[in-house]
Amino acid sequence: MRARGVVCAAAVALSLSLSGARPVHLIHILADDLGYNDVSWHNPVMKTPVLQSLQDSGVHLAGLHTWKACAPSRGSIMSGRYPFHYGFYDNQDANAYGLPTNFTTLPSLLQAAGYSTHIVGKWHLGYRSPELTPTRRGFETHFGYYQHGEDYFTHRFDDGCGAPDSGYDFNNATNLTAPADFAVPRTQVGTGGVYSAYTFTSEAQRLVRRHAATRGADAPFYLYAAFQNVHAPVEVPAVYEALYDGVIADPKRKTFAGMVSALDEAVGNLTQTLREVGMWENCLLLFNSDNGGPIGEANNFPLRGGKVRARSAAQQNPASACSPLFYSPAAPAPLPTAPCPAHAQFSYWDGGVRIQGFLSSPRRDLLPIVGGSWPGMMHTVDVMPTFLAAAGIAFDPAATYHGDGDVPFDGLNVLPAIQTSGTSPRTEVVHMIDNEYNSAVCNATTGVGGQNHCGAGITLGDFKLLVGFPGNDGWPQPPEATEATASAPECGAATFLNDTCLHIFVGQLRNFTCASASSCCAACAQDVQCGSWSHKAGTNQTCYLKSVGAMHKGKPGQCTSGIKAGPPTPPPAPACDTKTGIGCPCNPPSRGCLFKLSEDPNEHHDLAADPAYAADFERLLARLTVVSRTGVIAARVMLGKAQAKADGTATCAVLNRTGFYEPYATHHPYYPYPGLR
């Protein structure tokens, strides 16, 4: 990994008031399932020059977190709330009832302030009824698809309604405001056979050019470009695979890497168009992934875990009281329970919820300090208030919910902290609450929802607590690292790849730019003495602590003296029975896992049983218990899941009649929603 310095805390504190300045154009580029190790600034094998350049001229968001799955993380971006505060827990919730309409969305607030608002790509926040779709949620236009994924070339999605790839999910919805617009089949976009990144980029460019021509380059513009790349299926035109000829041998990984490079090119084409029409110099661009990468094709090394592929029907689990907290009104105290089955589809390990992201802008009043990394804690719920602050739009967070009860607004404006390289206002990230919803889903024998919700977790300050089964585990290296080791066996634990030495030591990935394999191996041997620090070869030798972004200069050929050694090699993990959950990390009978992230950023060393950290464990557990009581009533959520089967039948009826996916109900039965305790 290239050594990156912490953004220096220079300059004076900046006012958020941007009065007198032109309204900023907000560009949000959302990658789908991009792994932590799938970008060039972390993995030199990956070819992402455009993203690299944008990040180098912006601010890397080193502490950016998200939800574990596609739809809920997108709902957090749109609403500024954790999924458990709007009743959305996983992807299966998306089309059963969608993002509740009694929450005001980010594009709605921007549109009310005079912004032109557009979405290109994936929605995944409901299409059951017209009011759930993007052009009813604050967007002027939507060019893209409703479901979680589809074929990149045919744009068809198989939802089990008949023949494989039976439904076409690609349409152009522009100012569709009357229910009648959804009563008859619409003409679908003629994109069959065209790779989706091409079509999305072309439409985004068209929107930019049209906006500059009709409203003016200074008129405020918001684009939410939610690309399909790099979600499954693993598909890309051959020209992008060819970029990795002789670099990556594993066929699937090679195709996936090509998908990343295709996304990089798309971003380059879009930003070039913004420059051509005179809009780029007034842009604030946010790039991030929606969640961690799926284990197998994507890679999250050195982070632990990641998104894992969907389970087969045979992997559905029997009933089990798996929640170690299980809050209910009748039993407000935490209760010990039996182990939770371990077939979780997604992960609360950092590989599933910690993501790559950055902000970039030519405007120095917005980003005065660039070219480094901001280590502050941030979550995708913070996008809404941060974007609104950048736009100079005041809003009342409480007023963005219209219904019974009190639904907390979770987002925080982190822009002032980024602007001054200051401390983040966020001190905690809730990865999942533990309440009766978790237990109900874990105990369900129908298989609806699976065991996606058994675990829960919270990061509070320097510590992270996981209870129940946290999901997919391990620290898998990318295939290219394994291939490099085989080609340079004399390096032992070190590998030589593309003039870069990758040394694997206690889950840390370090690089050395070397002239030969022998010099690379020598540098790696020295690196063992650095512990959790890395040694960067060059004119000015550097030891670099990745977990906090600090840099310390050393003498050529050696690491700075006095730097503490890294943690010892962890003992082998106990056997994990993926059918019963017994022996799996953090799962009962264990009370949970505790990690000190400043010393163990990749979650190797569980401190839960260490008496020195007993108070920290209880403090985080108490906080998680309190937060868990703020989630929506489980019965409401389970009602939505019960409705999902009937909705599937209705979807198929429309699909079989029209050949494509579209809203299949005239209204939604669950609003106002949700109710709270």
Strand element count: 21
Distinct helical segment count: 15
Largest sheet: 9 strands, mixed
CATH superfamily of one domain: Alkaline Phosphatase, subunit A
Derived from helix and strand composition plus strand pairing, the structural class reads alpha+beta
Spatial extent as radius of gyration: 24 Å
CATH architecture of one domain: 3-Layer(aba) Sandwich
- Please state how the strands of the largest beta sheet are arranged side by side: 7-4-3-8-1-9-10-2-11
The overall pLDDT average reads 75
**Poorly predicted ranges:** 1-19, 176-188, 310-344, 443-453, 485-569, 670-677
CATH topology-level name of one domain? Alkaline Phosphatase, subunit A
Helix content: 10-25%
Strand content: 15-25%
Structural notes for this entry:
Among the domains are: 26-308 and 344-432, 3-Layer(aba) Sandwich (Alkaline Phosphatase, subunit A); 479-553, no CATH class. The longest helix has 26 residues, at 251-276. The chain has 677 residues and is of the alpha+beta class. It is globular, with a radius of gyration of 24 Å. Residues 1-19, 176-188, 310-344, 443-453, 485-569 and 670-677 have low confidence and may be disordered. It is built from 15 helices and 21 strands.
Short recap of the structure:
This protein has 677 residues and is of the alpha+beta class. The protein has helices at residues 49-56, 70-79, 93-96, 106-112, 196-214, 238-241, 251-276, 350-353, 383-390, 415-420, 436-443, 479-487, 517-527, 614-628, 634-658, and strands at 25-31, 59-65, 116-122, 141-145, 156-157, 167-168, 171-174, 221-226, 283-289, 357-360, 372-379, 428-432, 456-460, 463-467, 494-497, 500-505, 508-513, 534-536, 542-545, 550-553, 593-596. It is globular and about 65 Å long.
